[in-house]
Amino acid sequence: MVKIFIDPGHGGADPGGAGSGLLEKNITLEIGTRVRSILLNEYQGVLVRMSRSGDQTLSLKQRTDAANSWGADFLLSLHVNAGGGTGYEDYTYPGIGAPTSTYQNIIHQEIIRQTSFADRGKKQANFHVLRESRMPALLTESGFIDNPADAAKLRKGSFLESIARGHANGIAKAFNLRKKNKPVYHLVNAGETVYALSRSEAGTD
Predict the structure, then answer these.
(1) Are strands 74-81 and 2-8 parallel, antiparallel or unpaired?
(2) How would you write the pLDDT of the chain (205 residues) with one tens digit per residue?
(3) Of the candidates 150, 145, 159, the residue with the CA atom closest to the CA atom of residue 118
(4) Helical H segments across 60-175, by residue range
(5) Catalytic residue, candidates 24, 141, 192, 201
(6) Cβ pair 83, 19 in contact under 8 A
(7) Among positive and negative, which fits the CA dihedral 33, 24, 126, 94?
(8) What's this model's pTM, rounded to 2 decimal places?
(9) pLDDT at 184 (0 to 100)
(10) Cα separation of 63 and 56, whole Å?
């Protein structure tokens, strides 16, 4: 089983960035919850744990301690940017190589594909969650909360779903997760017998 630890940034007394009537802590939780749902509902062989499932205040150490003690295979830290820019970027720890860099490349590509965000690049930074985690870790910054155009997108549930889908698809590709088998339905016609149905399903008709 692949263990994915999702860390929605900020929370509780720490709202994170703010702009256009939005709070970063709420957006990251919404995206994280959607990523979790996609992974668990659509893929097999994956376990997901979140650093917070509500509006809790957590220190950075509490977040990495939880991921480390669980033995996560990957830590995803979700954030929304601020400071007057636009678009998407992500971060790994400086100097880190494969497999983290490989995961970054795959997830980055999927998020850009799903969201059509302006691509601000794949970057590195000495952030606590990247430095103190004992597994590959990626911190993502999905849009700028203080940019009116980005904020308008972040207000829409459909766009948050696209962001989440990009993250989830990227993780699934990076870890070669298999899709769950979908049930096959057969429309039974009036007068159709079980014998005829079984022959049809077997391709003998």
Answers:
(1) parallel
(2) 999 999 999 999 999 999 999 999 999 999 999 999 999 999 999 999 999 999 999 999 999 999 999 999 999 999 999 998 999 999 999 999 999 999 999 999 999 999 999 999 999 999 999 999 999 999 999 999 999 999 999 999 999 999 999 999 999 999 999 999 876 665 666 655 544 444 444 444 4
(3) 150
(4) 60-70, 100-115, 128-131, 148-154, 157-174
(5) 141
(6) no
(7) positive
(8) 0.88
(9) 62
(10) 12
**pLDDT of the residue at 185:** 64
Which DSSP string corresponds to 62-82?
A: HHHHHHHHHT-SEEEEEEEE-
Pick the CATH number of 2-201 from 3.50.50.60, 2.60.40.10, 1.20.1090.10, 3.40.630.40: 3.40.630.40
Residue 45 structure tokens: 């062989």
Q: Show the CA angle centred on residue 160, arms to residues 44 and 83, nearest 5°.
A: 125
The domain locations on the chain are 2-201
User: Which residue type, as a one-letter code, is found at position 98?
Assistant: A
**Angstrom distance (rounded) from CA 134 to CA 73:** 9
pLDDT score of 183: 66
Q: Which two tokens stand for residue 135?
A: 């597994």
Going by C-alpha positions, the residue among 38, 53, 46 that lies closest to residue 74 is 46
Q: Is 141 a catalytic residue?
A: yes
> Residue 92 is encoded by which pair of tokens?
């790994």
